[in-house]
Amino acid sequence: MALHPVLESVTARIIARSKPSRGAYLAHLDAARVKGVQRGTLACTNLAHGFAAFPANDKLSLKELKKPSVAIVSAYNDMLSAHQPFEGFPALIKDAVREVGAVAQFAGGTPAMCDGVTQGQPGMELSLFSRDAIAMSTAIALSHNMFDSAVYLGVCDKIVPGLLIGALHFGHLPAVFVPAGPMTTGLSNSEKAKIRQLYAQGKVGRAELLEGESQSYHGAGTCTFYGTANSNQMLMEVMGLHLPGAAFITPNTPLRAELTRAAARRAAVISAQSDEYLPVGHVVDEKAIVNAIVALLTTGGSTNHTLHLVAIAKAAGIVIDWDDFDELSKVVPLLTRIYPNGNADVNHFHAAGGTGFVIRELLDGGLLHDDVTTILGKGLRAHCTEPFLGENGQGVVWKAAPEQSGDEAVLRKITAPFSPDGGTVLVKGNLGRAVMKVSAVKPEHQTVEAPALVFNSQEDFMEAYKAGQLDRDFVAVLRFQGPRANGMPELHALTPALANLQDAGRHVALVTDGRMSGASGKVPAAIHVSPEILAGGPLGRVRDGDIIRVCARTGTLEAKVEASVWAAREQATADLTPNSVGMGRELFAMFRHSVSEAEQGATTFPLPSPIPTVVGLHDKDPVGNTVPGSDEDFSMKKEA
Ligand SMILES: O=C(O)[C@H](O)[C@@H](O)[C@H](O)[C@H](O)COP(=O)(O)O
Ligand code: SF4
């Protein structure tokens, strides 16, 4: 099937836009490569330190400077149910790589924050920045420079993006991502949401709420809604950074263990020491990034990827923006309905056909680039498969994904999608540019025009809700939630209250320079408003009572205020000191001061360029030119 013309044109535009930075990136990648094993560049003392604690057999292999060494970078901790299973993975990996004549070394751990534990709490104000801290921790692990390939153990929201950003700064090394899989299905997500709304109405108490939550989140593995964590899994599959179909195999099962061993062997086999060298910097190219955007859209994936994918692309020297998402969204059909976009969870999705089914349908529909490089080599078709245990429960065999969906209520063929478009759109107007995911919003709620109610915090909003002041039509303008203000926390805790008001027949919407969770859904929300207020964004001029129009169909985000009144408005201010101290927030001041706009990924790292500088704070390079990818560069482009 010929490629869809919009896929072609958006890809061509991204390649052209990225030429300078992608060129600089690939130059850096080539410069990092050495003849022989990377550890051969170390002095004897460095090397001795690097294998001092290793068993004799591995030490000998490392000393000989011939066999590849595979770095293990792991985001294991007990806080994330999704990461808890990683505890035993390093031993499996070390054992598996010996089978192919390599050595594996636990290079380093990275932090991992559970957004479920911190949702609605002060800790959530570190969450977005934890992505870049994870990228930095990955670099610290790999900076030992003992390694010829790497496996990355991570699943959740900021962790996979952070690991991949870090991995891309070592783009000369192959990268294999190793997931741990979803927890088994507990209380359904829709049942869970219902109990939350009843609690918000005061109809059930804490005991019932905690019981419901505990039945939903009941064991090891990723939470089973299609939020950012499971969106990460879909993206790793479509970018060819997982072994095919590894995403949604349950933890602590024989197949999960065999997949982990097979992933470790693959990482060793594709190092520069083999004739199948596949560095991650060549796997993640413009076509892979476009494939990731398409997979996100077709599955109604997390809005957080309109930040994370931008930051990941940037790490590889590739510049994407929300116009790219918006144009692709108009032609990419919705092929899955997984909560919050439906009632099913990822276990149902996997059973109905899973990631291999989606990739095949999109390839057949001309909506994915097949001519990409993955950890298996050339071509994406190899990822249209599903893994099964091999003979006598040893190893893994892959079979073609099923031709037909196992459940049309969860997964559809491209010939009969749930909707002709992907449902994550750009909305823009005199309030700035924002993202709106409507795949979980009923059509009758996708346009809201109502008076503004302005809040400076989610606590203020909840106070007004509990005081019964919100039983009306309104657009909640929640401001000072951008990355420079308070780290851009997810505002998912507002969902039950907004959903109750919507269910009661009120026309409500949310507009904010903050974010929602990947699991947020049914209430229309224009989020990530750029520029944020602290960067002079016009959201700071909105006052209570202004009529605000948010419309997904026309892509509109505007305050209907008479032009001379609007022009005369002062920019709102707020006391943000409470957001700069406590719960460790004082350690992240440098992130708040140098973070880029949401549409540039809300990241603190510069685009690869011959003279890398920190964007945000310094929009000019040492000789006074505007730094590509800086705020100034970005806003200049948007004005042009
Ligand atoms: O982007 C996401 O998917 C969220 O960050 C998710 O990881 C988080 O845990 C939410 O809190 C949803 O879970 P709850 O509805 O249980 O809060
Ligand atoms: S999916 Fe969210 S809530 Fe669940 S373990 Fe991951 S970060 Fe925590």
From TrEMBL:
Residues 67-381 form the Dihydroxy-acid/6-phosphogluconate dehydratase N-terminal domain. InterPro entries: 6-phosphgluc_deHydtase (IPR004786), Dihydro-acid_dehy_C (IPR042096), DiOHA_6PGluconate_deHydtase_CS (IPR020558), ILV_EDD_C (IPR056740), ILV_EDD_N (IPR000581), IlvD/EDD_N (IPR037237). Binds 1 [4Fe-4S] cluster. It catalyses: 6-phospho-D-gluconate = 2-dehydro-3-deoxy-6-phospho-D-gluconate + H2O. [4Fe-4S] cluster binds at residues 156, 223. One of its GO terms (biological process) is D-gluconate metabolic process. Pathway: Carbohydrate metabolism; Entner-Doudoroff pathway. One of its GO terms (cellular component) is cytosol. Residues 618-640 are annotated as: Disordered. GO terms for molecular function: 4 iron, 4 sulfur cluster binding; metal ion binding; phosphogluconate dehydratase activity. Its EC number is 4.2.1.12. Pfam families: ILV_EDD_C (PF24877), ILVD_EDD_N (PF00920). Keywords: 4Fe-4S, Carbohydrate metabolism, Gluconate utilization, Iron, Iron-sulfur, Lyase, Metal-binding. It is an enzyme of class 4 (lyase). Its cofactor is [4Fe-4S] cluster. Residues 410-602 form the Dihydroxy-acid/6-phosphogluconate dehydratase C-terminal domain. Catalyzes the dehydration of 6-phospho-D-gluconate to 2-dehydro-3-deoxy-6-phospho-D-gluconate. Belongs to the IlvD/Edd family. This is Phosphogluconate dehydratase.
